[in-house]
Amino acid sequence: MERVIIGVDPHKLSATIEVVDDHERRLGHGRFTTDKAGYTAMLRYAKAWPARTWAVEGANGVGRPLAQRLLEAGEDVVDVPAKLAARVRLFDTGHNRKTDAHDAHSIAMVAVRTQGLRVLRPDGELEALRMLVDRREALSRRRVQTVDRLQALLAELLPGQAKKDLTTGQAKRMLASVRPRDIAGRTRRRIAAEELAELVAVESKMEKANAELKAIVLARGSHLMDLRGVGPVVAARVLADVGDVARFADRNRFASWTGTAPLDASSGEHSRHRLSRAGGTGGLTT
Q: Most CB within 10 Å of its CB: which of 134, 190, 202, 211?
């Protein structure tokens, strides 16, 4: 039975596919929504080719949700880097104008022509780690927003006594020291108390998240936290974003992907180095 490649151009609300054989002949194509009905219809359509491999662009990025669903369904999935698909699109069409149909075709061509594409494996623990670290980072942003609102309220309740790095203990003492009598002041203090309660709750959730992330990182046998300045959140983010480090041919490729590979930057007779901003992930370069 001849094996086929299904090139997938994934988006949040839709996925465009093209089915090709080893001789690059197009056997089928389609566009499907990514909701339950559309996903089911796409799998039903693909069953016409029992020996199939799904080639998903950006399976560690925008294509991750669809790639994970396919893996959970027992499908064979490979990851197609976006740069390879763009290169093939340029060579095949003579221009680099993007359409979903062109993208799906280019992705399928990459999978047919390229040896050694990363074969995805289901890893529920890594996916859980990714969700947990995303949640922890969302909590961190929520804490910053809550502190900003609380500081603004305290600055109005206690002029000249604002704290730059406000802690919950400081906020409690400051709030306890003021008892406004006018309706605006009482309302401001009540809202500040609600913001303080929100801050306490968020920090409690962050502590629990840190403990859970630390346990998972250690359970995976990682020694990232042995590095100075690397805690459970950073270690979890590295593991979640990198996934299988074996997908990088060598350390130079890995450094290029993370944006930590130095580039020459000359100025007159002086030569220096700077970090690349063209890394594959923003999470590891910030």
A: 202
